């Protein structure tokens, strides 16, 4: 039980003794609703042992849902079956929302801050956007409506504080800047207008994280690939780690703003053509070179799925990339421990014993590219650096 009755009479029977209400409601939904619907159940207890169950049903990106083999809709007085036209109209929203997410991602790629002549290798773009009409969703939740102070204090959150085995990363940037839509944590290479402030003698160090007043999150990361022995490799651990950080930050925004709606996520990579993937225990030449220059993936998840420790969000965003470069079959979301020295995640499980690109077990690996310490003890490499 997550709550206790408030002073029920001694010897009286509590209604909680008769049923596990959470399990019954969630189990009923699992058996009767298709596609599945995630809800949360909260119990409110009274002093006499009675109480209420509050079933929170968030907006679902998978709607419409079928119950007992039919689609029902609400009218002014009761539920009634939906017509074929109404069902088709609801399903068409999926196409419209997918197009909307693709448009958001295209905008982020278009506003890449590093000029064309300074770009090298693969660059990562990631976004998270609450599906909300409130332009001040996060701002209103901040003390004194001071978003900059909250973003500055967010540097102590696990998503920023826990260690990684690559650089640069979200936790390594703390240059706070005001932006048109909110506040940014950026590397020193960018000014507040997102222009390069110095010549990038060593390209591949730019990290720019924007947190908007409406709760939106935008990440630009230009070290998604790196060179080793004159070969450019896709850095899968950095890609998955930074995307995982954006997902974790979306959780923090939801909690801060008490937001229970859905989120749109997007991941794009550019400059990937013919690049092999770098991973622990394998040589890039032994694996496939990426066949396209671009990678784009978008998803929408409800809040219950986002907050779940086993959320499939990361797998849905980067799983196809892993499968196209390695024989990866499972990618689970990295959730950093509240203790900065611990990581409780596993990004990938390989189908082949010699492929452990993001596995948690030690492995013999070729020398690491410069995004990590070259002399790091190889036996200490972990599954999820982000």
Entry keywords:
globular; 23% helix; 386 residues; disordered C terminus; disordered N terminus
**How are the strands of the largest sheet arranged?**
8-9-10-11-7-14-16
For the secondary structure, the number of strands is 18
Radius of gyration: 23 Å
Q: Judging from the principal axes of the Cα atoms, what is the shape?
A: globular
**Uncertain segments of ≥5 residues (pLDDT<50)?**
1-19, 280-286, 329-386
What are the secondary-structure elements, in order, as H or E? Answer: HEEEEEEHEHHEEEEEEHEEEHHEE
Note the main sheet.
Answer: 7 strands, antiparallel
**Structural class of the secondary structure composition?**
alpha+beta
| Helical segment count | 7
Mean pLDDT: 75
Percentage beta strand: 15-25%
Terminal CA distance reads 33 Å
Helix content: 10-25%
């Amino acid at each position: 039980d997550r709550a206790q009755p408030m002073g029920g009479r001694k010897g009286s029977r509590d209604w909680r003794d008769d049923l596990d209400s959470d399990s019954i409601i969630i189990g009923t939904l699992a058996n009767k609703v298709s596609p599945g619907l995630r809800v949360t159940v909260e119990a409110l207890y009274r002093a006499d042992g009675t109480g209420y169950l509050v079933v929170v049903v968030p907006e679902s990106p998978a709607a419409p849902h079928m119950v007992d083999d039919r689609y029902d809709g609400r009218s002014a007085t009761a539920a009634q079956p939906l017509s074929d036209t109404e069902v088709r109209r609801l399903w068409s929203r999926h196409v419209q929302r997918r197009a909307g997410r693709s448009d958001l991602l295209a905008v982020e790629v278009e506003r890449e801050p590093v000029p064309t002549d300074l770009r090298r290798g693969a660059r990562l773009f990631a976004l998270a956007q609450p599906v909300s009409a409130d332009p001040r969703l996060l701002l209103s939740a901040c003390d004194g409506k001071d978003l900059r102070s909250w973003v500055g204090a967010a540097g102590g959150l696990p998503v920023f504080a826990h260690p990684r085995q690559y650089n640069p990363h979200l936790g390594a940037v703390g240059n706070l800047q005001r932006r048109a839509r909110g506040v940014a944590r950026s590397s020193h290479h960018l000014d507040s207008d997102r222009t390069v402030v110095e010549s990038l003698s060593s390209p591949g160090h730019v990290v720019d994280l924007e947190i908007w007043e409406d709760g939106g999150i935008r990440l630009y990361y230009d070290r998604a690939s790196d060179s080793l022995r004159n070969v450019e490799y896709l850095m899968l651990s950095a890609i998955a780690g930074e995307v995982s950080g954006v997902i974790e930050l979306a959780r923090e925004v939801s909690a801060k703003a008490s937001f229970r709606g859905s989120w749109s996520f997007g991941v794009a990579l550019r400059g990937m053509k013919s690049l092999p993937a770098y991973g622990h225990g394998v040589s890039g030449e032994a694996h496939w070179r990426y066949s396209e220059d671009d990678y784009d993936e978008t998803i929408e998840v409800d809040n219950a799925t986002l907050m779940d420790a086993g959320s499939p969000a990361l797998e849905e965003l980067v799983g196809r990339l892993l499968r196209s470069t390695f024989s990866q079959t499972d990618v689970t979301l990295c959730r950093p421990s509240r203790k900065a020295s611990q990581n409780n995640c596993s990004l990938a499980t390989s189908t082949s014993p010699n492929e452990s690109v993001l596995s948690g077990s030690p492995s013999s690996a070729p020398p690491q590219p410069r995004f990590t310490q070259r002399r790091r003890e190889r036996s200490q490499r972990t599954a999820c650096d982000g």
